[in-house]
Design brief:
Blueprint: H1 4-17, H2 20-39, H3 48-51, H4 54-64, H5 70-82, H6 102-116, H7 123-143, H8 151-175, H9 180-195
């Protein structure tokens, strides 16, 4: 049986070899699954800051599916975040820590990767995104009634399947901005599949 560290390395290797647009779609998918899991928590366990990032994640999806106008919305949301009290260097002990919640961090890193990859400095955001996803999956597993010792392996295998799916459709995605009928089909075929919280297709 593969160790999760070997699977993690395999995911990293795949990501390094695909088009940056495929990485944006991958980022949107893994962040979406965390958001849906967070939205499904009891109300008392949800974080309002995290829930308020849903529109930003939807913009990342629009960008991933080829809508170039989503750039401006993502830029504005990130700019507002950077100018807010939530973006600070005071540490979690002193400053607000809402943006450090795993799902919130994953959504922000997905948006940051999209914004900065074209300048050649997005890789670090993708690395952080992947770290926070595994951290969140492990945390949810610890809190579950039926602990699964293979949960990280399952998540990483899921990510490899996601990359297969994305690669199979990326040519269509890269042209989707000018073809509304293609966008509609891709939203159904790809976004829905990448967004499923379970580990099956």
């Amino acid at each position: 049986m593969e160790k999760w560290t070997e699977l993690d390395a395999a995911v990293a290797d795949r990501l390094s070899s695909v088009h940056s647009g495929e990485r944006v779609m991958f980022a949107a998918g893994v962040a979406e699954r965390l958001m849906r899991a967070h939205e499904a928590l009891p109300a008392q366990d949800q974080q309002q800051f995290t829930l308020d990032l849903r529109p930003l994640l939807d913009l990342v999806w629009e960008a991933a599916l080829g809508d170039r106008t989503a750039f401006h919305g993502i830029k504005q949301v990130l700019g507002t975040y950077y100018l807010s009290e939530y973006w600070h260097n005071d540490g979690n002990e002193c400053g607000p820590d809402e943006a450090d919640e795993c799902t919130a961090a994953a959504v922000l890193h997905a948006a940051e990767y999209y914004m900065f990859e074209s300048m050649g400095c997005g890789e670090g955001f993708l690395v952080q995104l992947r770290r926070r996803v595994l951290e969140a999956v492990d945390q949810l597993n610890d809190e579950a009634d039926d602990y699964d010792e293979n949960v990280l392996d399952e998540e990483l295998r899921r990510q490899l399947r996601d990359l297969d799916l994305i690669s199979a459709h990326f040519t269509e995605v890269s042209r989707a901005w000018s073809a509304p009928d293609v966008v509609a089909r891709l939203r159904e075929d790809i976004r829905a599949s990448l967004s499923r919280v379970d580990h099956s297709r």
